[in-house]
Amino acid sequence: MQVIAAGLQTEFEKGTSTPELVFNYKGVAKSAYVGSHGSISRNAESISAGNVALQIINTDMSWNDILANPQNHVGAGLTASSVQIGYTGIGFMTLFTGKLDDADFSDVDGVGLTFRDQISDFTQKKVGSSQIPADYYSSASYTVFTNADWSSGRNPADIIWHILTYWGGLDSTESVANTDIDWTTFSEFKNILSSIGYLVQAKFQGETIANALKEIADKTMSTIFSEADGKLYCRYWLGSDTASIQTYNSAKWFNMPKIKLNKLTIKNRYEISWGYAFPQEETGTVSSATNSTWYGTIVDLSKAWATDAYKGKIVHVLTGTGVGQTRVIWGNTNDTLVLNTPWSVVPVLSDTYEILDYSKAAFNGISIQNDSTSQTNYGIQKEIIESTKVWFKDSISADGFGERALILNKDPVSEVEFSVGLSAYRQQLWDALYLTESFYSWSNQGFRIESLSFQPDQSNVSVQGRLVNLYHYLILDHAEYGKLDSVNVLA
User: Fold this and answer.
1) CATH number of the domain at 244-262+415-491, out of 2.60.120, 1.10.10, 2.40.10, 1.25.40?
2) DSSP assignment, residue 409?
């Protein structure tokens, strides 16, 4: 977040004067109307930045136009608004960008306004359906990637990008000009995952975008969140990243940091299934294909199938004009597949296809990672990862995840919580921070931000984080930090 006035940082850090909260409504600053306000928070485990509530003074009835014409403000006619904080004559910074969700006029002299962040509608869109939430559009299709992409596995960032842009309808501009996704952090995120070597495959038919993104984040130890600017950010927990480090000492916080050990986070054995395969029952070449409002077809004149032999199974276009599309087979004749969903792009003559049986899908193998010292100290604390939504392509990717997960979770997590001035709200989730405190004998002790919560009435930010050693653990062919698969050892 950009601070737009010199000298503002000191006031924000110290919190020495009462801030002014300004609510922009239809481009008009309404600071005089704000009576009270709820908290604004971001959490590493949540895709959305959450809601914010304001209690607006309404003695002059200036807000009654919402009551009289709700359709102009809530629902299809949502009005974009933002909440800012600052000091008169110094400057302001944006805390929240969202849309009006509800207005409560039960208070005689006021009105309660509830806002949701800009991505709330988008995250409820379902992958693989034609559901169209407010303000976003996506075509109806089950496609994810081409067959070559599917069989070789993908960088998780590629799948996230496809979900955000193809299914979510967000801006697909691959530059800092992107209006919906922060391109700078996304590029860094993709490069990190590429260097680690995670390759994943995914199947999200009928899942909401929020659930799909959460699945990928969980399988890669990443976080995806909304910032005050309304954009989506993707970050990865990288121990060696020092670019975003800020130092906080006792002169900047309002209370002594609280520290606790969370033994529930201990995981010292990982059993990770990989290579979820769908049996191929048939292949062929398209003679023709058609589309209608309710269904699509593929005709292969070389076939002589039994009626409905492939009912309920999946057809996947392997090559050609319709490549990558996947459809459920409603039924079949001797040479025609009738599909329960229209094509996004109708296949043409010479396109190739395969028929898959999802009901007989199975994993190719299991990667097992152990930490004997942790198991001796705490007993076996096992994590089984066997997802049919997002899975690792091969044993190398599964091993890489398991090894790094052990490093982070084999001991109790040291969690820290403290309150600090408003400058902390300019930090992002997963930023690395240093704490310096003589009481704990800390000299630049590093930790990662997992939660930020701002209460405007109290003029401070509550920060929760995980204490870490800022180490670099991307080491190939190392007994603890990066063991390669036995069949893929570097020469």
Assistant:
1) 2.40.10
2) H
| Residues 6 or more apart in contact with residue 172 via CB below 8 angstroms | 161, 165, 166, 178
Phi, psi of 335 (to 5 degrees): -140, 10
Please identify which residue in the block is written with the tokens 């996230």. 160
* pTM greater than 0.85 (yes/no): no
Cβ atoms of 488 and 445 within 8 Å: the answer is no
Q: How many CB atoms are located within 10 Å of the residue 381 CB?
A: 17
Tens of pLDDT, residue by residue over 17-46, are: 455 666 666 656 666 666 667 778 888 888
Residue-range domain boundaries for the chain: 8-116, 122-236, 244-262+415-491, 279-360
- 3-class DSSP state of 212: helix
The conformation of residue 228, written as its DSSP 8-state character, comes to T
**Block residue for tokens 């062929």:** 284
- Write the single-letter amino acid at 198: Y
Nearest to 461 by CA among 428, 415, 412: 428
CATH class of the domain comprising 279-360: mainly beta
